[in-house]
Design a protein that fits this description.
Layout (H helix, E strand, L loop, with lengths): L5 E4 L2 E4 L3 H14 L3 E6 L1 H8 L2 H9 L2 E4 L2 H9 L10 H15 L2 E6 L4 H12 L4 E6 L8 H14 L3 E5 L4 H9 L7 E4 L3 H5 L8 H5 L3 H8 L1 H9 L1 H11 L3 E2 L4
Parallel strand pairs: 3-4, 3-8, 5-6, 5-7, 7-8
Antiparallel strand pairs: 1-2, 1-9
Length: 254
């Protein structure tokens, strides 16, 4: 498959793609057993990359940087790509789970609080009969030791999943995928963050009208004000100012 167009959004190469196109690309990697990792990036990931050169480079190494929020879709349109649609991590997880159930792809879930990955796996199996989970791992809230890292690698390699779903916060999940993608012998890793809590029933989701109008951030701020106030009330205005100063532009093919 030819690469999707990419749009430079304050230095981050956001894939100008759609949900269906992203799903098709992931399936092509599974068929080829060709290791990649996928980020689902919105304003938060872009703004974190402004002060974190390592995170910026991780986004540049990603197989896809899916437009997780409407500001990424609008940025793509500003760059002249009209076909981009939102590729929201929780929606992608459900759509890929449906394909996995039909085609026999297997999944491993890494992340979440204790028990969340198991709840998520059970929920997906109930919703999509035939969906298969071959393992879960809940990491501690601290850096893993070298022995623990090797244990994770050995566990996932032994399970032989087609996909690893990573449910950590940004930028932790991006760093983890970048560090482990070449060690796991897995075709594709997806950093879907809050999708673990949403689809396990532990976190409510914004109404669709708020998602479509770019107001999901406001809903999440109301739900988790102490954790998210800085992310949205500081980063959002900085993002708007940045895009006004540096208009998104279409990148050459890689």
């Amino acid at each position: 498959m030819a690469d999707d167009p990419r749009v430079d959004v304050l230095g981050v190469p956001v894939s100008a793609t759609s949900l269906d196109q992203a799903l098709d690309r992931a399936e092509a990697w599974i068929a080829a057993r060709d290791p990649h990792f996928v980020t689902f990036t919105g304003v938060h990931g872009v703004m974190e990359s402004q002060s974190d050169p390592e995170l910026l480079e991780i986004h540049r190494r990603a197989g896809m940087v899916c437009p997780d929020g409407m500001p990424m879709v609008w940025s793509s349109k500003l760059a002249g790509v009209r076909t981009t649609t939102r590729c929201y991590g929780p929606d992608f997880l459900l759509a890929m789970a449906e394909r996995a159930a039909a085609k026999g792809y297997t999944s491993f879930f890494y992340g979440g609080n204790e028990g969340v990955a198991e709840q998520l796996a059970a929920s997906l199996a109930e919703r999509f009969p035939g969906f298969t989970t071959v393992g879960t791992y809940c990491p501690p809230f601290r850096p893993l030791t070298e022995d623990e890292q090797q244990e994770v690698v050995d566990t996932i390699r032994a399970a032989k999943p087609d996909m690893v779903w990573v449910g950590l916060s940004t930028p932790k999940q991006e760093r983890w995928m970048d560090a482990f993608v070449d060690r796991l012998d897995v075709p594709v890793l997806f950093g879907v963050g809050a999708a673990f809590d949403i689809h396990s029933g532990n976190l409510s989701q914004a109404p669709r009208w708020m998602q479509r109008s770019g107001l999901e951030w406001f809903y999440r701020l109301l739900v988790e004000p102490k954790r998210l106030w800085k992310r949205y009330l500081v980063n959002n205005p900085k993002f708007v100012w940045g895009v006004l100063r540096h208009r998104p532009r279409l990148l050459p093919p890689r």
